[in-house]
Amino acid sequence: MLRELSIRNFAIIEDLTVSFSDGLTVLTGETGAGKSIIIDAVHLLAGGRGNSEFIRHGAKKAELGGLFQISSTAHPVYKKLEEAGIEIEEDSIILRRDLNDSGKSVCRVNGKLVPLSVLRDIGASLIDIHGQHENQELMDEKQHIHLLDQFAEAQLSPILEQYSIQYNEYRALKKELASISIDEQLMAQRIDLYQFQMKELEDANLKLGEEDELLDERRRLMNFNKIFERSSAAYEAIQGETKGLDWIGTAMGALDDAAVIDEQFKEASESVTTAFYALQDAAYQVKNVLDELEFDPARLNEVEQRLALFQNLKRKYGSTVEEMLAYYEKIKTELSELLNRDEILQLKERKVLEMEVVLSELTEKLSHVRKAAANDLSEAIMAELRELHMEKAKFIVNFDALPYFDVNGKDQVIFYISTNVGEPPKSLPKIASGGELSRMMLALKTIFSSSNGVTSIIFDEVDTGVSGRVAQAIAEKIAAISVNSQVLCISHLPQVAAMADHHYFIKKEVEHDRTFTSLAEIDTDARIEEVSRMMSGAEITDLTLQHATELLKMANERKKQMR
Hints:
The protein is an alpha/beta fold and 563 residues long. 56% of the residues lie in helices and 19% in strands. Helix 2 packs antiparallel against helix 3 and helix 4 (144-151) crosses helix 5. The longest helix is centred in the middle third of the chain and has 47 residues, at 341-387.
């Protein structure tokens, strides 16, 4: 849930930090005080579109921050954080977003810089914002099938998992088939190209490690004179007459005689003896190499040409011999497929047909489970709508069969509703009445709030256009949703404010010719006054205070029954 929200230099808000708890938090205040600005800030914090117009006049940037606490590792945000390489500590997630006056924004999740798309993806798992006419998940026809699948998750999940595995294999096979199904001219050109490339690589007779060996050989050939001179000088210094080895031999004999008389010279005698024979071996090795050393200008030319061939092949087939050999194997396989195209095409086409049979069986199972769940969902939603005084409403889950397989099967699912007797059901997003739209959304939210995975649900004046018993029903429905999810609600209805577990009052003040917005939680007495104001307008009387007190008392009794 959203534990803390901080806003700096955003619209008319200079500096605001507020802590939230679970349950239902209601934000009220006079029109223009900045209630919707707070929701705008949360929307941007969750990855919504923003620009420099949101920055408070005179400031260089707006700063938004939110602390979320996630108690369950099964929450879908954990997977998204892992995919983004973001660590989570102590069940806390911190979102930050800075809007600069240049129009650019800087996004961070737990201190790590992330693209806006990642912030939006993570934010969608944490916050669900609903405005009166906002076309969010529930109002998006493409999302209806996911909501139905969520409703039937226990029965549907095993089948959907099998289908997903088969569907992914099917798509991969279809892609392979498409790559084989090329026109004859293009195929002939590709065969010629692959044959030429294979011959060029075969003629090169590439060997692993050869290039390094050639580079070493070229270095030796190019430095032949220096190698010969230095090795000859070394041999002469060691092995020549009255040179190093003779003197060390003299020392060896002398120390050997001394060691016979005095054991103190024994260790030195042994060391000199070892050195003598080691130098003697070294001299033999140098002599053997010198005897074989021979400068061959033709060989140097061969090495240079071979290395030039390597460079030419690298430009075409890979930066290393390993990559070039891997490319050779790749085109060898592709050439074989092209030359045996008809046979391979037939095999893959048969495999596609076999997989389509399996997929068809799975889609039938998916449809069967979905249609059974659709009846239960329809009944559940209509029961919720009756509680919201939409007794005549009819909710239908409409199914159409797609002519192809997609990631969800072959079902196209769209929620339909009729709110008036005699009117045919229409697609849910096409409902025009704000009050009906609000109640429809609340009915769906009540059913899905315990399992939709989001941490915080925010309602931005979704109760607009209703009053009386409908307003009371909406208030109770919002409170019911808050049993399973943290709910933040901006409202003008006293019935909704009375159901709040936490009530914040937003006010706007002018100081030194600047406008400031402040937010503070109010106590019982202040709540009575605020609910009274919401009931009657600006004028508060003893009677409205009495009605407000009674409304709050009734709301408390109703909440006890819910929880």
